[in-house]
Amino acid sequence: MSRRKFLHLIAALLASTSVAPLTAAPAKRIIVVGAGIAGLTAAHTLRQQGHSVTVVEARDRLGGRLWTSKRWQHMPVDLGATWIHGAKDNPLSALADRIGAKRLITRYADTTTYNTAGKPLSNSESRQLEQWQARIDNALEAAQNADTDQSVQAAVEKALNWNNLKANERQLVQFILNSTLEQEYAGGSHELSAHWYDAAAAFKGDDALFPDGYQVIVDHLANGLNVQLQHVVQTVTWSEQQVTVQTNRGMFQADHAIITLPLGVLKSGQVTFSPPLPARKQQAINTLGMGTLNKCYLQFPSVFWPEDQDWLEHIPTEAGAWTEWVSLTRVAGWPVLLGFNAAERGKRIEQWTDPQIVADAMQTLRKLFGADIPAPLDYQITRWNTDPYARGAYSFNSVGSTLAMRDHLAESLGKTVLFAGEATERKHFSSVHGAYLSGLRAARQIDNP
């Protein structure tokens, strides 16, 4: 499991996660573009400092890539981000403590891995998998010390002499790359930078989820804010004196704007800036990757999988096909399985109908647990890549990118326009806590320019 195998190994813990208090400053007019975690955090913080804050959001709901569905009675599920990754010393844990938000812990130690035939791995198969994992780790360590960047896939294929591997050996390698990297970073192994794919810092501890969904955080941050929903931003016109944000429903003028658009939206060019963005900021937008991670929740009439396991892994014959599953039974008592599809396969199946996706998922589950398992009572499916207001799940470090590019993405336009969001975080990209920290950073920049 990626959080178990990788991020915990490369954790670069911050000495402190506390945020310096904002100093008093004259009240300013501020527009925040985007009501995701970064935008809401910045707006919440600035409103507390006495500023006049307006949030404009394209969607008809709050949260952005935080999206709690309450379609199933007594079983709210997160269609966007689910976990506080590394709950110990995580700033989101501190926030959750302050507002009394309940959390449940999932454990990577509670994992069962199934082979291509659908059987739990034997001891010898587990040892073999560990040996391939070690070879891949060595290949990537060597690639990170090389002068020239390359993709993770290219580095591994070269080191393992890919063309001479047997079919079953390739399946093991593909499983490891998908389960530990593609599912983690949302980019394809042929896109991930061998130099920088794992450059994110990590907090210690297991992962925590909210039994009431991440909506508890969204609701807290949004309380009392002036949020204008269904305002699709078209242009941002700025000078050293003011900024004007034009949406499909009106125009907003302010002293400052904080832009929290997802990297995928910035890449699309659907929002234009006048004057244009500086060259190195645009280069960062063009070069950094926006990944895909889609979810398929299946609710069943009864539990037919191991009730004491949180994670169920499958080594598929088709690379990346339903490799990772999460059971919500032990942790929440729900007869619900959550299956993931990442990177290229995650994009591809977005073109399928819901029944096709469910049928494909059930084909895997029947292989693991028998042909007579019950059909799901209901399902909930995401399509983040084709979502016009996200255009992906979260960012990753692609081949040719550098760590400095995230700093460039975070740079302000003069003192007027600031940028936040997980993609602007050098150390905590692709995480909710990264987006949260970026919102605090942007708010601090306005009150302490």
Automatic annotation (TrEMBL):
Pathway field: Plant hormone metabolism; auxin biosynthesis
Key words, A-Z: Auxin biosynthesis, Coiled coil, Oxidoreductase, Signal
Coiled-coil region list: 122-149
EC numbers on record: 1.13.12.3
Domain Amine oxidase positions: 37-446
Reactions catalysed: L-tryptophan + O2 = indole-3-acetamide + CO2 + H2O
Cofactor(s) essential for the protein: FAD
Segments crossing the lipid bilayer: none
Signal peptide positions on this chain: 1-24
Family: Belongs to the tryptophan 2-monooxygenase family.
Protein name: Tryptophan 2-monooxygenase
Species whose genome carries this gene: Thiothrix winogradskyi
